[in-house]
Amino acid sequence: MQITSESVKVGHPDIVSDSIASNIISRILEEETKISMDINTMPHCGIEVFLGKGLCVVGGEVSTRVYVDIEKTVRQTVLNIGYKDCALGLNGDSMGVFNAIIPQSPDINIGTRADLGKYKEIGAGDQGIIYGFACDETPELLPLPYVLVNTMMRAFENCGNPIFAPDGKGQVTVDYDQNWRPKRVTTVLMSNAIDYRQVPEKYRSSIEDQARQIAFDCLNKWIDKDTKFIFNPTGEWNAVNSCSAADSGVTGRKLVVQLYGGYPGAQLGGGSIVNKTPEKVDCSAAFGARYVAKNIVASGLATKCSVQLAYAIGIAKPISIYVNTFDTGKVTDEKIAAAVNETFDLTPRGMIETFDLLKADIYKRIPRTLFMDKSYLWEKTDRTDELKRAVR
């Protein structure tokens, strides 16, 4: 039985779009913090980005007390990713930037301001169904294919070899035994745009070997002599035909990549995550549901767990909590769900405070990975004792 997960580098046009949106939010939070922001005066942002050939369109809605230079933030984000030359598919200095951001709807705003809303609380910024997942395959309590393919993406991003341009994507296939335990990596697929200006003609045949070395070094203990490596399977990917020179980018289009890599049982819900401030549960509850699922597995109550949270706009508490342990639970799923309801504060305010989601630095990092960072507070397993007490 084989399971494959996919991921992309931060230079993929969809993640460039996500990064632009999240960096705009980060800049707004930085400026708001300078004028004594708290949870009641926090900005509300839902930002969408379209990246075309040499063009970036920024839209969505924002409610804030500060000014941020949108064009400057867009350009700096693109340049920091490594797009400084049109020969790489995009140039942050010369690209066009169109700002179409509008103020947030007052009807939405009142539902997320405690002093204005019908229920006098910070309600969910929209309705939504959000999932979290955890399993015991890795120390991170994430599916092994997801961890490995994201590790490979970071390895290519940080390899320091200018041959490999910023745009790239890959897949890792893992073989499982009959008890759903991972055995080995069977296939590694890596596609990366190549900057041929950096490769003398006589050395071009070595590019695939260099790519294999980077991939296999970071996947080392799961690789064996029979592991298959596939690189740029069309035979050619020139960097001049990469990023938005060849493929448009849109915020929120890589949710499968960001949320568990397509692992069976790890469902998707909600909408784009990194382009919203955390009163919107697409953002905060994606972290909250993961936090709950991870603590369930870490507590020993199950070896695999999916958590569904459902919200109504303007209402703080989830209208339903569902837990599925895939028949691995030590007690019934209903008992675990009741314990979750008792143990965790899954309101927007509760999650913002628990995970420190008004910290601007978070939004600079989450487009690369939502979960594989030990500094993220939603990755902690600090509620296991409370959970175990609650199910007794």
How many domains make up the 3D coordinates?
Answer: 3
CATH topology annotation of the largest domain: GMP Synthetase, Chain A, domain 3
Q: Spans with pLDDT under 50 lasting ≥5 residues?
A: none
- Count, helices: 11
Please explain how this structure is put together.
The chain is an alpha+beta fold and 392 residues long. It has 3 domains: 2-7 and 146-236, GMP Synthetase, Chain A, domain 3 (2-Layer Sandwich), CATH 3.30.300; 13-112, GMP Synthetase, Chain A, domain 3, CATH 3.30.300.10; 128-136 and 253-390, GMP Synthetase, Chain A, domain 3, CATH 3.30.300.10. 30% of the residues lie in helices and 22% in strands. It contains 11 helices and 14 strands. Strands 2, 3, 6, 7 and 12 form a 5-stranded mixed sheet that branches. Helix 1 (13-33) crosses helix 2. The model has no long low-confidence stretch (mean pLDDT 94).
Summarize the structure.
The protein has helices spanning 13-33, 70-81, 106-109, 144-157, 207-218, 255-258, 281-298, 333-343, 348-355, 360-365, 384-390, and strands at residues 2-8, 44-52, 55-63, 84-85, 90-91, 96-99, 102-103, 128-135, 164-176, 182-194, 228-231, 249-250, 304-311, 320-324.
Which key features would you list for this structure?
392 residues; alpha+beta; GMP Synthetase, Chain A, domain 3; 4-stranded mixed beta sheet
Walk me through the topology.
Elements lengths: L1 E7 L4 H21 L10 E9 L2 E9 L6 H12 L2 E2 L4 E2 L4 E4 L2 E2 L2 H4 L18 E8 L8 H14 L6 E13 L5 E13 L12 H12 L9 E4 L17 E2 L4 H4 L22 H18 L5 E8 L8 E5 L8 H11 L4 H8 L4 H6 L18 H7 L2
Parallel strand pairs: 3-6, 3-7, 10-11
Antiparallel strand pairs: 1-9, 2-3, 2-12, 4-5, 8-13, 9-10, 13-14
